[in-house]
Structure formats: structure tokens, C-alpha cells
UniProtKB/TrEMBL annotation:
InterPro entries: ATPase_dyneun-rel_AAA (IPR011704), CbbQ/NirQ/NorQ/GpvN (IPR050764), P-loop_NTPase (IPR027417). It comes from Paenibacillus whitsoniae. GO terms for molecular function: ATP binding; ATP hydrolysis activity. This is ATPase. Gene3D superfamilies: P-loop containing nucleotide triphosphate hydrolases. Residues 80-218 form the ATPase dynein-related AAA domain. It comes from the Bacteria.
Amino acid sequence: MDQKQDVVRLPAERLYLEELEVLKQGDQETKPAGWQLSPKAVLTFLTGGKVKGVPITPKYIGNKRLVEMAIATLLTDRALMLIGEPGTAKSWLSENLTAAIHGDSGKVIQGTAGTSEEHIRYSWNYALLLAQGPSDQAIIKSPIFRAMETGGIARFEEISRCASEVQDALISILSEKTISIPELGREVSASRGFSVIATANTRDRGVNEMSAALKRRFNIIVLPAPSNIETEVEIVRKRVGEISTSYELKASLPEEEAVRKVVTIFRELRSGVTLDGKEKVKGPSGVISTAEAISLLTGSMALAGSFGNGRISEEDIAAGLQGAIVKDEEKDRLVWKEYLENVMKKRGSTWRNLYYACSEMNN
């Protein structure tokens, strides 16, 4: 069996291996130390284009200037922080940036309440430590430690989920570009090309505020939600197609009208006003992001392929909408019912079947 089919999710450097190889072959620009592609080739990989007649699929659909700023940051001694609402492709951009620059996006720290300073610096294999004492063999290197040794990029996901004192362990690493190992009486200095890309969710603001000292070590780029419905529809269609292929879902891709309806509902609930600006709507308690829309439609494909005729029905979409919107049972159910009655019901025949299916699910 093809090795690609043996894993649930391939890292970006393997998923887009052919594109990266084409870009390497056609890249005539100067490459920074430790980079496998020039900055312009990295930009092409991320925003799309054509190299030697081979199409390069866009990985990030949005403001190209933001991508240029992110790449430029990684050419300097500054680390990069991507901030945005849930579902604004922070992690996706971080992964693909790292894959394009170094061909290894796997040096990742996932920020949680349980993340400790050892996850950022290093820890010990205590069996070896007791048997041999402190030694290089007994060190368990963190992703940042390994990135420093190889001149790679470490990714720190959801950094604001970590305790503030844990976050601050990064300050000396980003300032001095070294990790001190007092047990061995030495320091590890970063090789050229080393950097850190962190992501932070604006919904987590106030959970563990980052210190001003840490923020000064980063160039911060805010990734906005898709600016218009056309962009969001394009993003959703592209990702649903990629995910359905990866999971071999036995259903046809959703028609553009279905995608547009889901995106319209999400944008209106997210913004608190209908697209025409004529009516205010209440928003649910949960996150109504582009990523949720993608998940909803892939779930609808799974339903249609497994229990339907292979084509997404209004009932499949209604089931997905119910799960995505109604998180707090009572409050969200009322918000959703109000939207159905005051907005969707009034949209005429093209929305009627979806309205009936959603109303039945919400009762």
C-alpha cells in the first residue's frame, strides 16, 4: 500500500513534496543560510503560482502582504508570532512556512495548561541519569533544542495557553540564542537559520497574558478572518476537497450553493448582522470559524457517503449546523431558533428545504 495512505495526516513537507521539489529545481534566487528555498520561492509555495509549467496550489488564501511580512521576519533575528481568531489558518500557515523553509515542520510544542519549562528547554532520561549521571546521552531535547542544533524552525502552538512563567522561559532563548545546561557546564548555541514561530488565539486573551518582555522578542502578525464571502467560500471548497481526498470520503463534493449557504450562516452569526446589513442577529456561545465550516461540510460528506446516496442533502447540512452552533444547549438553541425564524425563513424558496431540516433538528 502507498505509504501516504497509511497515515491519517501527512505533514506539509510530505503532502506537498512534489511541489517543493519543483520549486527547488526552479529556484535561481539566493537562499538564506539554512533555507532550502529562497524567500520568493517560499512565497510562491504559500500563495500559489506556476513553476516550469507545474501549478503550485495556494496554501494560504488571504492577504499576500501578511505572508511576505512573515517570511521577512524569519530572515531576521526576530521570532514570529501569528495571532488571530480560531480558524484563521495560524497553525496551517506556521506548518507550511516551516515545511517550505526547512523541510521539517515536526518540531512542535503544543501549549497547554500542563506545558512545563522542560518542554521548552530539555528534560532528563532519569534511568540514564541515575545510572551514569548527567550526560549528553541522558538529555531529552525539546523541539526548540533540536531546532537550535540543526538551524531549523520550532513551532509553538497556542502559546497563550501556557502559564506565564513557562512562556518566559523563551525570553533568554530568543534573546541570547542559547540554552544553558548547568548540569554539564556548557551552553548550546543556535545554528544559523534557527527561529521560532508561535501562534496565539485571540479568544485566549486573558487566560495567560504574555509579558511585555516576551512580546518584544516577536514580530506579531494578526491573521484576520476572510475579508469577504467569496474568499471564505474558496477556502472552504479547497480544504473540503483536500480533506475528502485524504480520507477517501465516498460522497461527491458539496455544490457551491451548499458551501455558500453554510458560509453565509457562519459569517452572519459571527458578525452579528446579516450580509445585507439590514438585520442584527445574536451569536452563539461557541466559535463559528472557517475551520468549523470546513469540518461541518466534510462531516456532511461522511454522512452522505455512509448513510445516503452519496450526495449531500439539506438534512446532512442541518445535522452539521446543529452540532456546530448549539454548544450551550439552552442558550444556543434559542439563538439558532431565532436566526431560523427571523432570517433563514424569510429567504425564499432556495433556502426553504434547509430551513425545514434545521427547524426539525432544533426541536
